[in-house]
Amino acid sequence: MKRTPLRYSAALLVLVLAFEANASEYRPIELDPNYSHDRWVTQPQDIIREFRAYTTSFDSKDNDIALGIPEWVAYEIKPHPQPLGASPARPSEWMTDSEQGLAPTDDSYKHSKYDRGHMCQKYIAWRLGANADWNTHTTNPLCNFIWTEGNHST
Question: Which InterPro entries match (predicted)?
């Protein structure tokens, strides 16, 4: 089989597209007007981030205790008309919110004995579509905690 520049170009294009598909970046955030994730206007309302599947608030730097952990995460759950089936693949790395200033990254959890706990579960977000599911893999709706032996069975 003869290797031509066209063949090399095609192989390179496939590699670039594969990398782009695995890149951990937010997918389009299209809010659904039929959902009111924070209809009761949860307090405090410091740094608000709205996603299709949830709304979250972070402590601002007003009192110097901003830890990059959400103060609260709110989401509305509605019945789904049919079984959902398997959800889409997860991103290869957790996304962070650079606008927040202090945001944990994938590396900040290594060897810390902390786990990332979803405060808006992937499967709940999957009800609102693949992009909503994907966008739960950010450090925004996470609360870190130390797993104990009993936590693994729940």
Answer: DNA/RNA_non-sp_Endonuclease_sf, Endo_G_ENPP1-like_dom, His-Me_finger_sf
Alpha-carbon distance values, 21 to 6, 18, 25, 89, 102 (Å)? 23, 5, 10, 11, 27
Task: Check: pTM over 0.90? Answer yes or no.
Answer: no
Whether 14 has a pLDDT exceeding 80, the answer reads no
Tell me the residue length of the chain.
Answer: 154
Give the distance from CA 71 to its chain's centroid. Answer: 16
Confidence at 35, pLDDT banded by 50, 70, 90:
very high
Where does residue 59 fall: left (phi above 0), alpha (psi -120 to 50 degrees), or beta otherwise?
beta
What pLDDT is recorded for position 137?
A: 77
Select the more confidently predicted residue: 84 or 14.
Answer: 84
Burial (CB < 10 A; 0-12, 13-18, 19+), residue 27, is middle
Which tokens hold the place of 128?
């609102």
Alpha-carbon dihedral 71, 101, 39, 84, rounded to 10 degrees: -90
- The number of angstroms, rounded, from the C-alpha of 11 to the middle of its chain's C-alpha atoms is 31
What is the per-residue pLDDT for 36? 92
